[in-house]
Amino acid sequence: MNERFLKACRRQPVDCTPVWFMRQAGRYMREYQAVRAKHSILEVCKTPDLAAQVTLQPIDRFPLDAAIIFADILLPLEPMGLNVSFSEGEGPVIGNPVRDRATVERLRVTDGEELRYVEDAIKQARKALARRVPLIGFAGAPFTLASYAIEGGGSKNFIATKQFMYREPEAWHKLMDKLARVVTGYLRRQIRAGAEAVQLFDSWVGCLSPGDYAEYVLPHVQLIFEGLKREGVPLIHFGTGTATLLKLMREAGGDVIGVDWRVRLDEAWATIGYDVAIQGNLDPVLLFAPLHEIERRVEDILRRAAGRPGHIFNLGHGILPNTPVEHVAAVVELVHKLSQR
Amino acid sequence: MNERFLKACRRQPVDCTPVWFMRQAGRYMREYQAVRAKHSILEVCKTPDLAAQVTLQPIDRFPLDAAIIFADILLPLEPMGLNVSFSEGEGPVIGNPVRDRATVERLRVTDGEELRYVEDAIKQARKALARRVPLIGFAGAPFTLASYAIEGGGSKNFIATKQFMYREPEAWHKLMDKLARVVTGYLRRQIRAGAEAVQLFDSWVGCLSPGDYAEYVLPHVQLIFEGLKREGVPLIHFGTGTATLLKLMREAGGDVIGVDWRVRLDEAWATIGYDVAIQGNLDPVLLFAPLHEIERRVEDILRRAAGRPGHIFNLGHGILPNTPVEHVAAVVELVHKLSQR
Questions:
Q1: What pLDDT is stored for residue B199 in this prediction?
Q2: What are phi and psi of B14, to 5 degrees?
Q3: Which of A232, A248, A294, B162 is paired with B142 by a 20 to 30 Å CA distance?
Q4: So what CATH class is A4-338?
Q5: Hey, what CATH topology would domain B33-57+68-277 get?
């Protein structure tokens, strides 16, 4: 098997820098669009055949160093009692958002049995991958899930989320604790079904001050990483806009810290310490730039990683819908070529 | 006159920390709503009587240490040739967004004569203030203005803006140069009309990597600050999500650097250096928290400022529409009380 990704997660030397992309199975690929023309996001997620098929699409097309199971971070909210739907172009909608303590009390701490379809998708994807590359499982982190649950969907400024946090701190911690327990069980199931690494997506946590992160988020994330340690697979901790939270995120846990383009990779690594691996950090919009510009940026990131074992190349966030496929291919090739030891 | 604000801008000792708020004249005040019930935002901006009246409303209500002229950052886009309108609740809309080099070429570099209504508002507000507190003028910074011009309105991820920047670097620099020249002239006119300090709002620049900021933004902002230096009034340089850009923003210019809540004030100040003043940095959502929580956060910010001359208390961004008025009053009082030398 191509072990580059797993070795880099463990900060072991590799022949060249491993690369995968968040949302590498996505709308920018015609193969994916063909599946989505017939099935909704939730249908694909809940049909292991389809989820596995879509998971493999980028692996069949590009020499990527890892696959990531196709799923959505909001899936665990359903069995907890929230109504999740996706409107085309508008993103996710929670029909019955969390607005008070009573709603928090009613949320079920599921053991993840209802999400067995993800485990089945992982098993099928592993089989189809036939040990070509490792398979990554994932889940949304408590803050990011709480933000969707409270805002009722995506948000620009997370005003309702923060208001809830400041005004109802006890209910907030209860909500975060429930989410953390559900996420821990869900990720454990993914690992036991065959996920060879897992990534926790705290995509929107960068809207918080360091003080708020430490007080309202960190202990709950810590619970998740503590709970997964003994599973023995690499744990990736990712967020965007987290330049001032990196030390705290590292304290919360993870063998690999994912960073976005707003922070220079060398400065980020110096901040989190060289005893953890780092993942990132090309701006996804750069994939729309001319190739010579892309090459300049890939080079810059690799130069900042300085050949130190423990760098996994990725974007700072997911691949965008209209990204040129050939630029994705170019980045994979450039990373491998320019990082050869 | 209450000189606290101007003294702090110049890092001179003050009896207690000055405080003002971005969007201190806004929907959270009933007096403001009464004016807006009868007039659109653009009407208020373009009617010096009304703009001056609204500017004074928070000054009459709270013991603030500065007034800021009521206006909108997008006003200069109109005489440049862009159609700006405001839809209630949806924010600004540019009817004919900039999508190619030809549109950039057609944009007029106005000398600001068409914006004389802002100068008139400043004159009237100065008169009405009767030297109670100084009056701040302001403008949007080139990147933030370019993002509205290109996206056609507000944006979450600034994808069109960055695509334009990466794909059409020459047209981008041309656009930024035109905006920088217009903004310089506009701010100079504001100062000559009576603005006793000016703030440059680069509200959305935090979506960029430090490398992109240095290459695509910094030189244009530098032009503005260079062009205003000899006017002799304090220049404030503000952005959000700028933790990794602070050194570069400082290099671009400004006597005061404004920071948001995502960065700790003491760390931000150490980063930009103690030879500039600092403004910030309470999360506007904290004004919705209970008073004891607000007090704890105000204390924390003042403690991080450590009594060093050159701190101006502010929020990390504008006051939000439904903010409780009594909490705004409480923060002004707390800042003055807790910072007494």
A1: 98
A2: -135, 160
A3: A294
A4: alpha beta
A5: TIM Barrel (3.20.20)
